[in-house]
Amino acid sequence: MAGITVTLSTRRDRMVEPRIDERRIRNYIANRLNDARNTFIRHMNDGRPRRSEPGEYPRTDSGRLSTSVDFEVGEREGRLYTDVEYAIFLATGTRRMASRRMLADALEEVMAERPGAEELARAFMVR
Fold it and tell me: Is residue 7 part of a domain?
């Protein structure tokens, strides 16, 4: 059986070199987390002075929960969080109270409405 040899040559000035713009990726993550934070706070403060129902976002009472929501962005990851100790009970419910919509729900809502695919696509460049 005869061997086959294939040689491919190209000029350096015509090579394709993919690049990733890390700054744009961080901005994309920060924008989605900030949108989720704002969505959560907006739902909490919707102007209706009543208690929240199961499956709704919690209503604000003292404002402690809404002012505690923040986010952090790393290289290619982010974190949306609150340090209010009772947030876990709102998220998971208790024996006496059904769960409420929380931060993960706000992020899912934002990603469904504004995924930002074009924004993220701009992070990938070819030279």
Answer: no
How far apart CA 86 and CA 88 sit, in angstroms, is: 5
pTM of the model as a whole: 0.80
Residue whose C-alpha is closest to residue 26's, from 69, 70, 71, 73 = 73
- Asked whether residue 9 is domain-assigned, the answer is no
What is d(CA 16, CA 126) in angstroms, rounded to the nearest whole number? 6
| Number of separate domains in the chain | 1
Q: What stretch of H or E contains 119?
A: helix 117-121
Domain that holds residue 122: 19-126
Residue 48's SS3 state is coil
- pLDDT for the residue 6: 52
Separation of alpha carbons 109 and 23, rounded Å: 24
In the structure, how many helices (H) and strands (E) does the chain have? Answer: 5, 4
Let me know the angle formed at the C-alpha of 77 by 109 and 74, rounded to the nearest 5 degrees.
Answer: 130
Asked, for residue 10, whether it belongs to a domain, the answer is no
Does the residue 83 lie in any domain? yes
Residue range 24-47, pLDDT digits in tens: 999 999 999 999 999 999 999 877
